[in-house]
Design goal:
Blueprint lengths: L1 H9 L7 E5 L10 E5 L2 H14 L2 E2 L9 H8 L6 E2 L4 H7 L2 H10 L25 E5 L9 E3 L2 H4 L5 H4 L2 E5 L4 E9 L5 E2 L3 E5 L6 E6 L3 H17 L5 E9 L9 E6 L5 H8 L4 H9 L13 E4 L6
């Protein structure tokens, strides 16, 4: 993903790309200039130095333990403009619970949350309820579990940990994602991707695109409705959802909103006939863009390699 987005920005005329690299990592030989980081303190110092030299800053970091929010905060007084979500949008999207509570207030379908233990949970017709346990600040399916018995699932968590997790009813269907480019002139949904997840843990293994047209239209419509319900933002946002069995979309739900670049970028850039980094900048600047995608099936792994 890092290589893909770096190459796309570097391909823009008169564009110079800078980035940070942990000094313990090998040189990725990216088409950019780099500042080496040798300590946590140096990371913030170099980050802010570059942010004062650049016009735009794109932050790619997981929501886990506040890592994304912390680095966005570093940019608040910098010269560079944000090409990533920030402010109230980021505060909401960085929490699974805040996201579903916010979206449900605007009538967007989301998974039903349940208490971690005790209370009643009416089973669905014809079967036993299935639950998903996830980190409230999760990314990449870290810490997710699937169970038919919540009473045996949550006691393994300490009292302090329970507040960091969300338990919700499992939503069956096709897992999909829609990347949305956000900006002051409006939001643009890109071609939807199917997500390939590991059974039971929901570990993200990769994705494929395109998906059948009726499903794609439902996915784009729901994703745009979800983003429209959120506070305004700028940049690339990923909307994860599940498309249910009903053709009218009545069982479709938004699972979460990723306030950052997602792995789907590596697959979408291979079928997009325009430079997606340029499109991201154009939308952020309030310009309208028209993106088109080749009718070519692409499957990619979580590490970005095409299959």
């Amino acid at each position: 993903m890092l290589r893909a987005v770096t190459e796309d920005f570097a391909a823009i005329e008169d564009m110079e790309v800078w980035g940070l690299r942990d000094s313990r990592l090998a040189d990725f030989r990216l088409t950019r200039k780099e500042a080496l980081v040798r300590s946590a303190a140096a990371e913030r110092e170099e980050f802010q130095r570059l942010a004062d030299l650049c016009d735009w800053a794109l932050i790619i970091a997981p929501e886990l333990d506040g890592m994304l929010e912390e680095r966005v905060e570093w940019l608040m007084n910098a010269k560079a403009k944000m090409l990533s979500p920030s402010g109230e949008f980021l505060r909401i999207a960085a929490s699974k619970t805040r996201t579903v509570e916010w979206l449900s207030e605007f009538g967007i379908s989301v998974p039903v949350g349940v208490p971690p233990s005790g209370g009643s949970s009416k089973p669905p017709e014809g079967g036993t309820p299935t639950f998903v346990l996830k980190r409230d600040d999760g990314a990449g399916s870290v810490g997710m579990q699937l169970t038919h018995n919540r009473e045996t699932l949550t006691p393994a968590l300490s009292q302090g940990e329970r507040g960091k997790y969300r338990l919700e009813r499992f939503c069956p269907g096709l897992p999909a994602s829609v990347a949305v480019l956000c900006g002051p002139a409006g939001n643009i949904a890109l071609q939807p991707c199917e997500q390939i997840l590991e059974t039971g843990t929901f570990a993200y293994l990769g994705g494929r695109t395109p998906i059948p047209l009726p499903l794609a239209e439902r996915a784009k419509s729901l994703a745009l409705a979800a983003i429209a319900a959120m506070p305004p933002t700028t940049g690339y946002v990923g909307v994860d959802l599940v498309l249910g069995e009903q053709a009218d979309g009545s069982q479709d739900v938004v699972i979460e909103i990723n306030p950052r670049l997602t792995t789907s970028y590596v697959g979408l850039r291979q079928v997009c006939q325009q430079n997606m980094a340029q499109a991201m900048l154009d939308v952020a600047c309030g310009r309208l863009v028209d993106l088109s995608f080749r009718e070519e099936r692409v499957e990619f792994r979580a590490d970005g390699c095409r299959l």
